[in-house]
Amino acid sequence: MVWNYYESRIDYHEMWxxxxxAAHAVPNFCRLAAWAMLAATRLLHVxxxxxxxxxxxxxxxxxxxxxTWACRRLxxxxxxxxxxxxxxxxxxxxxxxxxxxxxQTLSSxxxxxxxxxxxxxxxxxxxxxxxxxxxxxRPSHAxxxxxxLDFLNTTLFGRVGRTGLGPIKQRQHEVADxxxxxxxxxxxxxxxxxxxxxxxxVISIAPPREMPIExxxxxxxxxxxxxxxxxxxxxxxxxxxVLYDPIDGALLYTxxxxxxxVVDGWLAGPRVIHLVxxxxxxxxxxxxxxxxxxxxxxxxxxxxxxLGALVKGYxxxxxxxxxASDYWLRAAAHRIYVFIDRVKSKSNISDEPSRLEFSKLMxxxxxxxxxxxxxxxxxxxxxxxxxxxxxxxxxxEQTVRKLHDEVLAAPTTPGPSESxxxx
Length: 423
Description:
Helix content is 42%, strand content 17%. The chain has helices at 25-44, 61-77, 106-109, 118-134, 139-153, 165-172, 190-205, 260-265, 273-287, 289-292, 304-312, 318-333, 351-354, 361-365, 386-389, 394-409, and strands at 2-4, 9-11, 47-51, 54-58, 93-96, 99-102, 111-116, 209-212, 221-229, 237-245, 250-257, 296-301, 337-342, 368-369. Mean pLDDT is 84; it is low at 177-181 and 413-423.
């Protein structure tokens, strides 16, 4: 019903569809789909469901072809015409919205793997390489790359892919200065160039997202980490970690000073306690890598800044994002399913090891000392290089090298602002 202002009356209209956002539009829109689903279930005895007007079914291999044919015939008989470009047979590797749902390991390993389609990854790599070649990234293009890579990150194990997005997001929101300037030409900064190169590596070689279909039960490990900084203590910065493994009932703890070369690499700031707390995370994953591999872990942290960086895999602070990257590179390399949560400082049982105090709670609990593994954390750059953590598939390596040669060798047409700004 619409009020006709000019003739002072109500006009009635019959709508054959409903505009998006109208009251009850979604329930009414789903009504026909739900009816079709129930009809196919009762008449054909197929396992089928719907999401709005998208239908999906689960069938054994021996009946999948006939079941799909029967459902399509039934839908045509009642006037439901499916989009032939979107219709596909159920398969062990199923593609939707640029994502491949790999179910080949469901029976053997109980794992559903979610990975990006190779074409989507290749297109992202080509786009980034073109930016590197032109040495320019405009804000509008940065927004496009950020959106594309942020989506690809959902198909990677853990939070490892978010590490290099900070500089791209910063460029996305920059405003050009008036007149010739470095920013006005949108040249790549050293930080932005390094981030783009890092992202090419990580999206091409990081393992896919894995989703176990079986419940972990009572074998989830509990991990506590903590850090302390005291001016009148030598060493000044110390981290501690405690791990409980329910499989054999082992309670283990470790402790280590933060290497001075690591502290020297941190950018100067008034406080570094959050960095010390973050450093304890990758230290713990390195120390107990063999126990935690392919395991579920609940990681308790009592520092809010460190907790936020680990949960998001991202931080606005450069020091924090590098340490968060260290953490998630390890989790992805060892397939550690981590859930990170906050614990109050008074309830954090790794507080004493982080203060080099081992004669109280650890003794009472019967915990065993484990030597810390600092071999991969003492070196700054290699610890954050994804190629160190993941074996690069030969096919991907050859593809990336070929793209690199083709894209960077192609001639570049100078843009309208080529003469603006200095190199």
